[in-house]
Write a structure and sequence with these properties.
The chain has about 190 residues and is an alpha/beta fold. Helix content is about 30%, strand content about 25%.
Length: about 190
Amino acid sequence: MIEIDGSQGEGGGQILRSSLSLAICTQQPFRIVNIRANRERPGLMRQHLTAVNAAAEICDAEVDGAEPGSRSLAFRPGPLVAGDYSFDIGTAGSCTLVFQTVLPALLIADSESRVRIRGGTHNNASPPFDFLARSFLPLLARMGADVQLELASYGFYPRGGGEIRSHIMPSKQLGALELTTRGALLRG
C-alpha cells in the first residue's frame, strides 16, 4: 500500500482527490495521513467525503476513515464500473472538484457513464463550472476525450443546491496535448 503525506505541497484536498483518481486508474491501494493538514479546518469536510464516496462507488472500493474530520484514510480500489451515478454533497461544496475526482477513472472505463453532482457550482477556491466547460474540457477534447458537461442549476455559497450533469465516453488512449503557439490576443 502506498503511503501519502497529505501535508506536502499546499497541503489541501487536491492531494486526496488526485490520489483517489490515480488509485482507481492503477488499481493501487493507498493510505493518506495528514489530510488537508495546512488548512484552517484540517481533515475531511463534506465535499471531500463526497469525493471519497464517489470514487469508492465507481470502483466498489474498500475505505477506512471516511468520516467527517478524519485526517487519515485507507482506500483499496476494486474494478472500475461505468454507469449512471448521482452524488449530492449536501452543502455548497464544489461539484466541479468531485467531478474532477471521478473523471480520469471514468475516461478509461469500458463503456459510457453519466454523472450528476449536486452542491456548489461556482465556489471561491474551486474551478467554477464555466472554467471546466469553456477551458478544461475543450483542452481535454483536443487530447481525444469525449465529455459533455451541462449546468442544470446554479449553486452558490452558502446554500449550494446547484447541479451539474456529465456524459463521459471512454477514451482508451488520450493523445498528447501540445500547446506550442500562443493564441490570438482577444482583448487588450
